[in-house]
Design a protein that fits this description.
By secondary structure, the chain is an alpha/beta fold. It folds into 2 domains: 3-18 and 65-86 and 238-400 and 454-522, 3-Layer(aba) Sandwich (Rossmann fold), CATH 3.40.50.150; 34-52 and 122-223 and 403-449, no CATH class. Helices cover 40% and strands 13% of the residues. The protein is built from 17 helices and 11 strands. It has helices spanning 30-38, 87-92, 146-165, 169-180, 189-205, 209-218, 223-236, 239-254, 275-282, 299-305, 308-323, 341-344, 373-382, 403-422, 430-449, 462-471, 481-492, and strands at residues 127-131, 139-143, 260-265, 290-297, 327-333, 351-357, 388-394, 476-477, 498-503, 506-511, 514-522. The strands form 2 sheets. Strands 3, 4, 5, 6, 7, 8, 9, 10 and 11 form a 9-stranded mixed β-sheet that branches. The chain has a two-stranded antiparallel ribbon with strand order 1-2. It starts with 29 loop residues before the first helix and ends with a strand.
Length: 523
């Protein structure tokens, strides 16, 4: 293909032949109103208040860093020159179509029912916090140290879960009311997490968890607001960067000699994750390959994001033109269990790549469905003899665990996540609250409050994923050692509390002594 034909972009967004199990309910519909009533019949629970997202301040803007000069490939030591350079800018920066204003509104628009935490200086030895909320009450709590108060709150949350697990309802209700006086969505990490875990416990008690989870999915902010929340999460935590960099490195190395590459992405999102890989492939000494990207996203996510596929197409078209690499894009709005060979349309001579970013845990196994959709999907993928399969997942054991140990695991996992965000973002930042509500709280409620097929957040430890993929006929593919070193440099720019370990052929990203994310590659 000559240079004058480098651009081979094609957008084929097509409606899914499968209907959504949930009808498209407009924002502000009776479903959302019933959501408010469902959560303790109170319109003021943490999920009923959406804070208007202000413009990203200088503290939340992407930071530039020198990333990568080579993937250290045999005989191609320079073809990945600057492959990961400015990755923070290119992966998630909003396009012109979804631009965000550069100056915050002059008038703060905090809902009046939520008051700021006190900002004046107080003694480190004695603190008085006023947590104002119609739901959680107005409480002045004086403790000898915030640390001991946090320990008390964590133990109180555990006691609430223990009472509920033992069906001691009166004790549970008394403990929950006490917990509500201590939690705050603008407090320290355990107070913020506690607010959502209390709601999850109450939803479990009232059997309303699935209703809340589905309503929260439909209540996702649309368009640029959703992009803003995703961008903030991407910017303040290295979790998404880690997953994208690990996947890109594995794909680049596995496909370094391929002329035609077909990437099947099981959560295309905004498509920005592929910018760096396409740039690297375009720089190959022998010329760029032809790249097809099949982007899959379920109908609910597509509905929330509006013209998501069109935006993905525009971004990939811009990358194709900028780096002179032929890119063809096909969009599939379909639930993962309904993906078929015919929909993927793999062509002869293509090196097929499958990418599962934080998505495979949504597929139920035989403990939920006798048909074992998870195993069925893995065997479908295996039937294509893929060049590489990349897997990024939360390192948490909540799939088959009973309620109480699952609660303890969730508390431990998300305590680390909320603490890591606290190291970067101020506690009274409205955009931080929005990120926690839209990106974390929904999953927390689902893990705690739902059972059976209603529980779609079913995280596994890497050793379980290794068993799953091995049984499906896969073998591990070595991850790039150079990308590993780049990720270590990345983590150092966030906090010394992040760590990266290599274990059983996977990379594990953690906060302090808690592993949070695993990345692995298979073929």
């Amino acid at each position: 293909m000559g240079s004058d034909h480098f651009h081979a972009y094609r957008l084929t967004s097509q409606p899914s032949p499968y209907s959504s199990p949930n009808p498209k309910t407009p924002i502000g519909s009776p479903l959302i109103e019933s959501l408010k009533l469902e959560a303790r019949n109170s319109p003021n629970c943490p999920f009923s208040t959406t804070f208007d997202s202000e413009t990203l301040s200088a503290g939340a803007s992407p930071s530039s860093f020198e990333a990568c000069s080579s993937f250290n490939l045999p005989d191609n030591i320079h073809y990945m020159k600057n492959a990961l350079q400015d990755i923070e800018m290119t992966l998630m920066a909003p396009d012109e179509e979804v631009s965000m204003p550069m100056n915050p509104p002059a008038q703060s628009r905090w809902p009046q029912q939520w008051a700021h935490e006190p900002t004046g200086s107080t003694s480190n030895m004695v603190q008085t916090q006023l947590v104002h909320s119609p739901t959680y009450g107005l409480s002045g709590t004086t403790t000898s140290s915030s640390y001991s108060n946090n320990i008390d709150l964590k133990q109180l949350l555990i006691a609430c879960a223990s009472a509920l697990a033992g069906d001691n309802i009166n004790e549970f209700e008394n403990l929950v009311e006490r917990a509500r006086t201590l939690v705050s969505i603008t407090g320290d990490p355990i107070q913020r997490l506690g607010a959502y875990m209390v709601e999850g416990l109450v939803a479990r008690r009232e059997l309303s968890g699935n209703h809340i989870y589905r309503a929260l999915r439909r209540r996702e902010p649309e368009g640029k607001d959703l992009l803003s929340y995703m961008y903030i999460l991407y910017d303040v935590c290295p979790y998404l960067k880690f997953g994208y960099m690990a996947a890109n490195g594995a794909i680049a190395e596995a496909c370094r000699n391929e002329d035609r590459i077909h990437i099947v992405d099981f959560q295309i999102g905004q498509g920005s994750k592929w910018m760096t890989l396409l740039q690297a492939l375009a720089a190959r000494p022998g010329g760029p390959p032809h790249v097809r990207i099949t982007g899959i996203d379920d109908p609910v996510s597509i509905y929330a994001r509006g013209d998501n596929f069109e935006l993905v197409g525009k971004r990939l078209e811009a990358v194709s033109k900028m780096f002179k690499i032929p890119v063809e894009f096909k969009a599939l709005s379909v639930y993962a269990p309904f993906v078929t060979k015919e929909l993927l349309d793999v062509r002869p001579g293509e090196a097929v790549v499958f990418n599962f970013p934080f998505q495979l845990h949504h597929m139920p196994d035989e403990s939920v469905d006798v048909n074992n959709p998870r195993d069925g999907l893995l065997r479908l993928v295996k039937s294509f003899s893929p060049k590489v399969v990349t897997l990024v997942e939360q390192e948490s054991n909540t799939n088959t665990a009973a309620f109480f140990p699952r609660f303890l695991e969730t508390l431990d996992f998300y305590s680390a996540v909320f603490e890591s965000m606290d190291a970067i973002l101020g506690r009274d930042r409205k955009d931080r609250i929005n990120v926690e509500q839209h990106s974390l709280a929904r999953d927390i409620v689902n893990v705690i409050a739902c059972e059976g097929k209603e529980r779609v957040e079913r995280h596994e430890l890497f050793r379980k994923w290794r068993s799953w993929l091995t049984m499906a006929g896969f073998t591990q593919y070595p991850l790039s050692g150079y990308v590993n070193s780049v990720i270590r440099d990345l983590l150092a720019r966030y906090s010394d509390s992040y760590n990266l370990v290599e274990k059983d052929g996977a990379m594990l990203l953690g906060w302090k002594d808690r592993d949070l994310i695993s990345a692995s590659a298979w073929h």
